[in-house]
Amino acid sequence: MHDSMEDYDIVIVGGGPAGVGAAFTAAKLGLRTAIIERTTLLGGNWTNGYVLSILGVYTYDGSQKITGGIVDEIVAELKERGGTKGQSGNFIPFRPDEMKLTLSYLAAKYGVVTYFGSLVTGASVEDNRISSVTVSGKDGTRTLRSKFFVDSSGDADLTYYATSSVIEGKENAGWHQEATLPFRVGNVDEEEVIKFSKAHPDLISVTLRDGRLERLRIMPPLVTKAKEVHRLYLPDANAEFLFNTSRKGEFVCNATHIKIRDFKSGRELAEAINDLRHQVVSSVNFLINEVDGFENAYLLDSASGIGLRETRRAVGEYVLRRSDVLGNARFDDAIARCGHPIEIHDPEKGVVYVHLEGGDSSWYHIPYRAIVQKGVGNAFVIGRCLSAEFDAQASARVTGTALAMGQAAATAAYLCMRDGVRAIDVNIKELQTVLREQGMLI
Ligand SMILES: Cc1cc2nc3c(=O)[nH]c(=O)nc-3n(C[C@H](O)[C@H](O)[C@H](O)COP(=O)(O)OP(=O)(O)OC[C@H]3O[C@@H](n4cnc5c(N)ncnc54)[C@H](O)[C@@H]3O)c2cc1C
């Protein structure tokens, strides 16, 4: 077995939106930064899971920008590559390959050391600090030492290995949000779809921008009828939502759904993704056969990885509550804003939205303590595995917010290293000042 030691200032476990937010920020601050990713691309659900929309940058009604900083750099680079046209209502749609290129370009530009095909499988803790992580890959096992660590694995893997201070699924029930395999269709005749929607507003609703088809929703009457006569295999959904990816005639669809009992079971994941692939093919055939404008459309591709919305979360120094989210909470130790409703893909009830009490133009704060690992002096936990109740995570998990948490964690690590203090003892006022200087909105 190959066994080598490497030393960094900050090691980031997981290269999804949260992880890249942390990595780019840390490297820009001059920290020796490593990001460890088990697949062979950066972007997590964005690129591996075809979540082709950045939510969380704007309030839910799209009226106000609430997240800045690294997300603005990523979007600017994407625009340069023709991968996005920017804001569309409350989100930023983009194309996946341009996102892959953008993220690897920025990682190289800022000097982030990237490990692909590398799975973190353990952590050593000494004197209430993580001293190293164990990374398994084709070359055996590596030990990466670092002054600070960030858990952006989505599954709270690092937190689990370091402290076991984690919770899975819905409290006292154990079930998870349903998983999805998004897919893209190409060669959609947008004008025909618009005509069809005018003739059948009960069957399909559309959103136009500058006369162009931006989003469409195939309504329950059409979907359930097709399911009843076995022309559509879509067991856990009764509508199909598609949005344009920034290229004429190209749309992404998030309709497929499946229940997840144990996200750690390789066999269950294999069975789930096989079922989802059947749903993808059936959905495309349904669109071609039942919706005007799709006659010459085709399946462009589907995500390579299963889209897991929620698996395991940390129990950190503060647990973000459902009441904080719905009540538009403000915190003295705020590090980011989020305006997304609670959005639960419930295995029994379908997709359930609970909107913030302040309305769709309102937002709440993410407190710093919700991204600090409990009882560990030098570790953060960010993104969809932040320290939050199940319902609160169902809001705070969106990717714009995940990026912002990453930016805050890396900046806090930088200040803690400079001052020789534990994560929980950061000078919060200075952290907020630096984040604002970096363009973040708090
Ligand atoms: C189908 C679907 C639709 C969604 N729609 C939207 C949307 O429209 N807009 C939006 O903003 N959000 C959306 N979300 C939510 C969003 O995708 C996630 O909450 C977000 O990706 C969280 O980012 P993250 O970096 O925390 O986690 P992830 O994106 O899950 O990234 C985690 C990364 O860590 C890696 N990793 C995991 N374990 C290890 C390990 N032990 N060692 C090394 N690497 C590891 C993974 O391979 C992955 O790359 C959606 C989610 C799903 C599943």
Short summary of the structure?
Helices cover 30% and strands 25% of the residues. It is of the alpha+beta class and 442 residues long.
Chain-wise SSE layout:
Blueprint: E1 3-13, H1 17-28, E2 33-36, E3 53-55, H2 70-80, E4 91-93, H3 96-110, E5 113-115, E6 119-126, E7 129-137, E8 140-151, H4 157-163, E9 166-168, E10 183-186, H5 190-199, E11 204-209, E12 212-218, H6 220-228, E13 240-244, E14 251-253, H7 266-290, E15 298-302, E16 312-314, H8 322-326, E17 334-338, E18 342-346, E19 350-354, E20 364-367, E21 379-381, H9 390-396, H10 399-419, H11 428-437
Parallel strand pairs: 1-2, 1-8, 2-5, 8-21
Antiparallel strand pairs: 3-4, 6-7, 7-8, 9-16, 10-14, 10-15, 11-12, 12-13, 13-14, 17-20, 18-19
The structure holds flavin-adenine dinucleotide (FAD).
Would you write up a description of this structure?
A hairpin with a 2-residue loop joins β11 (204-209) and β12 (212-218). The protein is α+β, with helices and mostly antiparallel strands and 442 residues long. α1 packs parallel to α10 (399-419) and α10 (399-419) crosses α11 (428-437). The protein contains 11 helices and 21 strands. Flavin-adenine dinucleotide is lined by residues 13-19, 36-39, 44-45, 48-49, 51, 53-56, 119-120, 152-155, 157, 180, 182, 254, 307-309, 383-384, 397-400, 402.
Task: Report the span from N to C terminus.
Answer: 47 Å
Spell out which ligands are present: flavin-adenine dinucleotide
Radius of gyration: 21 Å
Number of strands: 21
- Cα shape: globular
Give the percentage of residues in beta strands.
25-35%
Give the averaged pLDDT, no decimals: 96
Sheet with the most strands? 7 strands, mixed
Q: Number of helix segments?
A: 11
Q: Percent helix among the residues? A: 25-40%
Low-confidence stretches: none
Q: In terms of structural class, how would the helical and strand content be classed? A: alpha+beta
